[in-house]
Amino acid sequence: MLWLTQTICKSLRGIIHTVHTVHTVHTAHTAHTAHITRVVNVLTSRLTFEKAVCSIESFQKAAYRLSNFITIDIDTSSDQHNAITINQNKSTSDEQFIVSVENFKKYVNDESLREKIKSDTEPIRNLILGIAFSKTKLQSDE
Length: 142
Known about the structure:
By secondary structure, this protein is of the alpha+beta class. The protein has two helices and six strands, in the order ββββαββα. The chain has a six-stranded antiparallel beta sheet with strand order 1-2-3-4-6-5, with helices on one face. The N and C termini lie far apart (64 Å).
């Protein structure tokens, strides 16, 4: 389900423009909330992810894939959620930033699934590696 609320606020002096877009998205693997804010011509987005679903490593890997366009700050102070603030790089256009935020969410989901698959298949991988290296005859039978 997707709920979208958009509020646009401008200060009286017109110096600071704030755009708040709130998305709450629930998929089979992730649940997160997004807020996009513009302060003095720089966009930021704040996402919250359930700690039980996504690891810090997932956020770091996703951010690394988009490091030409965004930087992130990770807030782990909540017991149930991790809050991620995504910041627009100076050379990134507004359109590219919005695309990067969407890609970030996809990449976090991708990395979380990779971690789950890795942990689920670890015993099988170890067994295969054990069998493969047991027949190399690298060790003597002494």
